[in-house]
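Morning. Coffee machine broken again, so started the prediction first thing and wrote up yesterday's gels while waiting. Chain of 171 residues, entered below exactly as on the submission form.
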Amino acid sequence: MAKPAHDPERRQDVIAGSILLLFALAWTVTVWLTVPDGYGVGPRAFPLWLGVALAVLSALLLLKGMIGVYEPPLGEKQPDEDAPDRIRLRMRLGVVATVTVIIAAFGWLMPKIGFVPATALTVAVTLVGPLGERRWLLVLGMALGIAVGAWLAFGQILGAYMPSGSWISIF
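Came back before lunch.
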């Protein structure tokens, strides 16, 4: 089902896809030029693949916005479907702003409390805040699972540096 060209949702997807694609390209080029290449999987591999993945996904979002193909979930009505366009835009921008603040807080907290606690806290706050998850066992499991899993994969298996924290040092 195609939406008309003047639809605000299409315009939002084109703008978001364009901004994310530019960021992904800048990120990928920066990683390629600044992080030294190693033999096999080195310190450049994961950030480079993140940049490539973001570029592909943002290009798909941009294409979706340009073509205008939207499929609503089967029989489901979106919670903000009846809201006027300006209210829906304000709600979405609020989520984007909240996630941006959470990511900035993660960058500030990581050298102070360490990678694992900062990651667990960031995942938990993101799940509870913008995503609205209220099942505390799920939030706790995902926060600890992602934080410890990333620490094991990157810090222990791949040997990447993971900050331990200047205020507290758990890992």
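The chain has a mean pLDDT of 82. Going to sketch it on the whiteboard this afternoon.
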